[in-house]
Amino acid sequence: MVEYHRHSDAPAISQGPISIAIIGVGGAGSNVLDRITLDRTLDASLVCMHTDVRVLGHAMAPTKLQLGTELMRGVGAGGDPDLGREAALFSRDVIRQNLAGHQIIFICAGLGGGTGSGAAPVIAEIAKSTGALVLVVATMPFSFEGRRRITQAEEALELLQKRADALILFENNRMGELILPKDGIQKAFGAADQLISQSLRAVSTMISTPGLVKLGLDDLTSALSSSNGRCLFGFGEAKGQNRGAEALKKALKSPLIDQGRLLHHTKNLLVHVAGGEGMTLVEVEGIMKQIGRNVPDHTQILFGVAVEPKLGDAVAVTLISSLGAEALQSYSQAQTAIRLEPEVPASNEPAPKPAAKTSAPPPLPRSSEPEEGDASKAKTAADAFDLFAASAASAVATAPVATSVFKEVTTEVTHVIERSVRVDAEIPDEVTFEESETPEAAEENEVEPEVVAPMAETTSVPLPTARPQAAPVVTARERSEPQAEPAPAPARHTGGLLANVIGGSSSAATPDSDMFQAGDEGRGRFKNTEPSLVEGEDLDVPTWMRLKKKLSR
Amino acid sequence: MAKTTIYAGLEIGTHKICVVVGEAKRDGSIKILGVGEAASRGVRKGEIVDFDKVQTCLNDALVRAEDRSDVMIRNVFLGVSGAHIESLNNIGRYRLPEDQTEITEDDVEEAKEIARNVNVPQQNVFLHSMTRQYIVDGQEAVRQPIGREARFLEADYHIIHGVRGRIQNAIRCVREIPLEVEDVVFNPIAAAQVVLSREAKNQGALMIDFGAGTADFVLYRDGMLTASGCIPLGGDHMTNDIAMALQIPNGRAEKVKVEEGSTLYQDVDSGDVLRVEDDTGHVIGEIERAFMYEILYLRAQEIFDQVKVRCEAHIGHLGAGIYLTGGVSLLKGIDAVARDVFGVKVTKVGSAPVSGVTSTFENPKYSTPIGLIRYAQILDSEKPFLSPLARLSRKVSEMLSVIPFS
Fold it and tell me: What pLDDT was estimated at residue B57?
């Protein structure tokens, strides 16, 4: 049933069902096991391993194993991977006993903590030595969990990569996308657990059930083959009339795939379609056609179909692929260089501020944006990004590995991107946000009245410099001839030149036109609405005011 | 379907809220039964900002419409607008399976599906997606591809999308009245149904619905909907410009604009001064008429410029020219401004003749609400170029798709 191209040394498979073991290591691992136990979706022996007895007490897995009983005395590893490793080594015999006799062993661990990062590699090694296939499902910590945990996770990851046959890596940051921003953290972790248990179930179904079109571990490893890859995983199950399309839609909805967009960048994509006995060829064909549209031609699609009576009349679609962390980053950077900016002021560095000012993108369709402007914006974004990275680097000068900093920034970036996707059309909102946030904007507010609305003065004291302003509120009889003459004149002359003036302003965004975006002067009744920004110019401000300002310069 | 149907169209405009009740007859003609209008408050730039105020005004308009038409209104077609609404054209290319030469209904569906599969920002929903044409093996402008022999089928779609939350808010506001929203329609799409004739669409026409809060436009080229959108600038901005120039209240400025407004500043003598009085006859401001006209000219020009930027590529293909409608199109000289900007023929129009109290409704102010009735009628007769995809109408279309050739 399972194809073992690369593992010819593995024991030949006996007839009968494959025995699968799922090992949850550490807190995250036991949470995933809880989820699997509750769902009762998997035919596997579940073993929960932890250093902390209290966690084990809560765990719902049928088999529980306390690591380093005497060494740790039932207390957790306290976030120290060394302790976790010691504990696992201490109880290796018990571990071996529990692992023996299984052909496939999944190890679930949340990396970054003590037990997960420390014990998982040891357990993986033991598992490997029993001759089983070892698949590791690991999660990287949220970026807010701190740099140290990420460094620990990276180190553990390296160890695991050497020992496991396949490594499925989830980025918690991306999984945060599964839930609404306002939902509790508990729900965030819960959703992540659910996704992992789904992936476990999908993978084990995939490898263990007899497929009409088989998919084996070799396919799985090649789908996950990119170095330092992050797993792109999507799973969808649906019933009813349109189940094929619905299931695929759900699978593509997975935040790890980013609405299928990330699939454009992968080399290998594993697609597994499982369904009850009622599944038809047409359905499968429809699904594959749809997928064909989502991936470029050069992507290798590893395709498998299996009939799983357990599914009843449902159809399940699993998509597995991977993308190198670097590729992921470059994708995200290229995608949203401009959109990055709103996030930049959030850091405490004063440097990125100018970037924030130019960042207000006009609400016009992107196509109308001059390309140079785009490029320069992208550049400022890149600069700001550099600064940010640099400051981050200096802030953690103590951090031993530079790559960890790099990674931190990466995760930050991906995080931003995911949010910015939503922000996309809300640009005006961003602008109002800036208005209230940037202190500079507030300053401008106070300064500007002199520049923009001096009309009150003009009526009583005609200033020589206020020549164009004399026009609007003219008390004609009091006004002397020479003043009256120039007043309408500038405007009149511009009448013919208007197209040039306005056209000029709209094609080449004037550098100081952003003065308008912050101030409320001249907005009149539109004071409290979102500004209609075009090329950095607020069109809610009367045209004549803006024009006058341009002319007086 | 063999009966006359009564529809109600609701436009929540920035300046006025308008409910139109119309009867669609079997022969396709429309009779307007009644119109209820109320001044609008709590709407800015085409979007609802104050629910309570809008609902009060909406109730007024509704009661009037019910009174005049003697119809109890339960369902409405709601016109929406707002700067968040954008549009794009997308072509879905479908290759027929090797063993098949003739295009079937399924293939068309497939091509459509591909065409609709575009990336819009995550929080956006499709408001409309309309088939512009089918392209069969490179042959364009095919209306009915089913049954043709071909290798490739392409479906050309015009997709209008907007921010889900904002559209949803408008719907919610209406539902609380309570009124059921039958479908949500992008305002200029509705207005174009009554403003533009078939010939105009074929020759190429740009309709600009110049309202108080927004200037919405749709562009037809070769009979196909090619571009549409919304500029969040309108008559309110003109009023504001005047108010700020004269330092007078907005209400007064509005009155000045409506009564005295024009954009033909070149025809006015420079000495001509306009006095603005308040209710007691007190002069609260004076302005040189030419200057005020110029203020209006500049603003109008700017708004047209914005429209032009968005349909630059098609300006050379407007055989029928530009059609101006909406409240601001009543402003004197506005057509001249449009002609200056676009350089093509400009027509000021209201709704094309419908029966009923016609004279009232030829006023350009009512283009959109009457258009909503027409849209509703077209929707029901399932004209191919207006297949609805708004969430609310999905049910209807599914039901209809079961009946062949209906």
Answer: 92
Whether residues A117 and A249 share a domain: the answer is no
Average pLDDT, rounded, for chain A: 64
**Which amino acid makes up residue A231?**
C
- Nearest Cα residue in chain B from A422: B122
Question: Both A366 and A270 in a single domain?
Answer: no
Section B364-382 average pLDDT: 84
Which is higher by pLDDT, A324 or B271? B271
Which class is B86-162 in CATH?
Answer: alpha beta
Q: What is the pLDDT of residues B315-335, one digit of tens each?
A: 888 899 999 998 898 898 999
Length of chain A counted residue by residue:
553
Residue A192 lies in a domain: yes
Shared-domain flag, residues A283 and A194: no
A490 in contact with B, Cβ within 8 Å? no
Q: Which residues of A touch B84 (CB under 8 A)?
A: 425
Whether residue A443 is contained in a domain is answered as no
Q: Are residues A429 and A500 in the same domain?
A: no
Place of tokens 């023996």: A100
Q: Could you tell me the CATH number of the domain that includes residue A289?
A: 3.40.50.1440
Partners of residue B122 in chain A, C-beta under 8 Å: 259, 421-422, 424
Locate A111 and state its tokens: 């990396």
Residue range B39-50: average pLDDT? 88
Q: A433 and A419, same structural domain? A: yes
Residues 230-249 of B with CB under 8 A from A: 231-233, 236-237, 239-241, 243-247
Q: What is the pLDDT of residue B358?
A: 55
Whether A16 is in a domain gets the answer: yes
The pTM of the whole model exceeds 0.90: no
Domain boundaries, chain B: 86-162, 198-351
pLDDT of residue A313: 81
pLDDT at A182: 65
| Cα within 13 Å of Cα(B291), Cβ side | 32
Domain count, chain A: 4
Task: Give per-residue pLDDT as tens, A476-514.
Answer: 344 333 433 333 333 333 443 333 333 333 333 333 333
Letter for the amino acid at B224?
M
Q: Tell me, yes or no, whether A309 lies in a domain.
A: yes
Q: Which of A282, A303, A335 is the last residue of a domain?
A: A335
- CB contact at 8 A, B258 and B252: no
Return the amino acid letter for B251: G
Q: Taking CA B255 as the corner, what is the angle to CA B252 and CA B257, rounded to the nearest 5 degrees?
A: 110
Query: What span, in angstroms and rounded, lies between the C-alpha atoms of A140 and A150?
Result: 7
How are strands ordered across the β-sheet holding A63-66? A63-66, A45-50, A20-25, A104-110, A133-140, A166-171
Do strands B43-44 and B139-142 pair parallel, antiparallel, or not at all (unpaired)? unpaired
Angstroms from B142 CA to nearest CA on chain A: 24
Position B186 pLDDT exceeds 90: yes
Pairwise CA distance, residues A132 & A13, whole Å? 11
- A188 and A272 together in one domain: no
A315 and A345 part of one domain: no
| Residue B24 pLDDT class (50, 70, 90 cuts) | confident
Measured between beta carbons, which residues in chain B are less than 8 angstroms from residue A530? 83
Q: What is the nearest CA distance from A330 to chain B, expressed in angstroms?
A: 20
- Which range marks the domain in which residue A263 is found? 231-335
* Averaged confidence pLDDT in chain B: 84
Among the partner residues B117, B123, B244, nearest to A542 by beta-carbon distance: B244
The superfamily (CATH) of domain B198-351 is: ATPase, nucleotide binding domain (3.30.420.40)
Interface of B with A in 40-69 (CB under 8 A): 44-45, 49
The answer to whether B368 and B79 have CB atoms below 8 angstroms apart is yes
Domain end call among A335, A360, A392: A335
Reported as a pLDDT band with limits 50, 70 and 90, residue B228 is very high
Q: What is the pLDDT of residue B219?
A: 94
Same structural domain, A320 and A347: no
Which of A29-43, A271-285, A383-397, B42-56 shows the lowest mean pLDDT across its residues?
A: A383-397
- Report d(CA A515, CA A523) in Å as an integer: 13
